[in-house]
Amino acid sequence: MGSSMVMIVISTMLAVMPCTCYAITNNNYRQQQLYPVVLVPGAGGNQLEARLTKEYKATSWLCNKFYPLKKDEGGWFRLWFEVGVLLAPLTECFAERMTLYYHEELDDYRNAPGVETRVSKFGSTESLLYLDPSLKKITAYMEPLVKSLQMLGYIDSQSLFGAPYDFRYGLASEGHPCEVGSTYLQNLKQLIENASNLNGGKPIILISHSLGGLYALQLLNRNPPEWRQQYVKHFIALSAPWGGTVDEMLTFASGNALGVPLVNPLLVRDEQRSSESNLWLMPRRNQFPSTTPLVITPDSSYSSFDISRFLEDIGFEEGVHPYETRILPLVEKLVAPGVPVTCIVGNGVPTAETLYYGEKGFDEQPEILYGDGDGTVNMVSLLALEDEWRDEENQKLKVIKLAGISHMDILKDDSALEHIIDVLSAINSGISTSSFVSHL
Ligand SMILES: *[C@@H]1O[C@H](CO)[C@@H](O)[C@H](O)[C@H]1NC(C)=O
Q1: Residue 187 Cβ < 6 Å to ligand 1
Q2: Ligand 1: does its nearest atom lie under 6 Å from the Cβ of 417?
Q3: Under 8 Å CB-to-CB from 386, ≥6 apart: which residues?
Q4: What confidence tens digit (pLDDT) does each residue in 195-210 have?
Q5: Would you say the CB of residue 44 lies under 6 angstroms from ligand 1?
Q6: Which entry of 4, 166, 205, 355 is 20 to 30 Å from 179 by CA?
């Protein structure tokens, strides 16, 4: 026995050691070891550009004169996000340019007349780092996460990719046209294939934040199982609102000032109501039972089963038809994709659970009863997959809860980033981090 065994051990060490040293000193080599990562941001999580055509008619002289102040040669300017729009008169101009319109004859959504929009740098992480690059500190979005990924050896556009999109648009159930959202899914699919090809055919790791998780799950399930097997190693969903949020009902009823005290929420309410993706995030029946009122007024109450009546009563009848035909069938089932999934979510942050409106109606901000969640998304929604996939024998799912981490902090907080990097490193080193749902 003795010496030959020792020889084997030594020769194995010799074979391994130069590689290890090389890996530490040479990024290219390390890169080859990594599964490429594709980042799918949440709503509002990437820059959006716009330009105005002759068809555009501003409702006020001020909008034409003072906004936007800067355009490039092609007439493009940053629509989302630009801090100037927080000033009241400009907020209205901004909102009218951001507004979507549902066209009944097309059964689809379109921009406001005369407003063209685009995302820039598709494939790169560039437009996800900061929402307003002139104010990096206060508008940082995925920058801290991207930095952590770079420390692992990831390099933008080589092993790390970003998939920005026009987050105002959503997806619709089968059989309904959905030009912008479906085009995005095609581009995302192409990006994933390109990312894999660039990295020796390795499958990619999808990392999404918030709404991006809903898009990513749709992408997986709208492609054949063989495609998923070949191209997607793992799906890490951060703070995904699988079952919608009560907060979204607040946005539809009274507007959401995005946490900026200067902004009057009623100025952005119509624009927020018009967003197809916002409608996608209404509380879902599977998580919010019919017996639980989510909104209570002096005359009535509304559960997740009463969303249509709620939309009518707040004065947004236009939303009822698209909600019933495009959204309800889309969210009926969360299909298990077979690809291993890890959900990382915050908990223990007060989150709107019941909204109480007084005599003055929906223009007045409600009293809010808070429950568990990440400050934006309710706990039942963050944990929906555990419940929904309980009996899925071939679905690996792991849910990691981070106490006190809010919906946005998950992308910034040091301990949250460490958890994300741990999960990613484990996948890269071949350690299985997921147990089967049935074993949880
Ligand atoms: C994928 O690669 C092809 C060929 O290089 C390129 O034409 C295409 O633009 C890329 N698409 C995406 C979405 O990265």
Answers
A1: yes
A2: no
A3: 397, 399, 437, 440
A4: 999 999 999 999 999 9
A5: no
A6: 205
Q: Tell me which residue of 179, 173, 177, 178 sits closest to 221, measured CA to CA.
A: 173
Query: pLDDT tens across 319-372, in order?
Result: 999 999 999 999 999 999 999 999 999 999 999 999 999 999 999 999 999 999
Going by C-alpha positions, the residue among 264, 270, 283 that lies closest to residue 314 is: 270
Between CA 40 and CA 47, with CA 41 as vertex, the angle to 5 degrees is 120
List all residues 6 or more positions away from 428 whose beta carbon is below 8 Å from its beta carbon.
33, 34, 35, 152
CA separation for the pair 246, 294 (Å, rounded): 7
User: What is the Rg, in whole angstroms, of the alpha carbon atoms belonging to the chain?
Assistant: 23
| Number of folded domains that form the chain | 1
Q: Does residue 95 fall inside a structural domain?
A: no
DSSP code of residue 173: -
Residue to mutate, 192, 193, 194, ligand 1, most ligand atoms under 8 Å from C-beta: 194
**What is the percent of the chain with per-residue pLDDT over 70, rounded to a whole number?**
90
Query: Token match 């077979």: residue?
Result: 338
What is the position in ligand 1's atom list of the atom closest to the CA of 123?
14
Q: How far apart are CA 45 and CA 32, in angstroms?
A: 29
Domain for residue 67, yes or no? no
- Residue 325 in any domain: the answer is yes
- The owner of tokens 């509304």 is 302
Q: CATH number, domain at 271?
A: 3.40.50.1820
309, 367 in Cβ contact below 8 A?
A: no
Cβ–Cβ under 8 Å, residues 302 and 310: yes
- Domain assignment present for residue 74? The answer is no
Domain containing 311: what range? Answer: 3-44+123-436
CB atoms within 10 A of CB 148: 18
The H-or-E segment that residue 354 falls in is strand 351-356
Ligand 1 pocket residue status of 223, Cβ below 6 Å: no
CA of 187 to the centre of ligand 1 (A): 9
Cβ neighbours of residue 137 under 8 Å, at least 6 residues apart?
none
pTM comes to 0.91
List average pLDDT for each run of 10 residues in the chain, which is 440 residues long: 35 37 46 88 96 89 81 92 85 93 98 96 97 91 98 98 98 97 98 98 98 98 98 98 98 87 88 97 98 98 98 98 98 98 98 98 97 98 97 96 98 98 95 49
Q: So which residues are the catalytic ones? A: 210, 374, 407
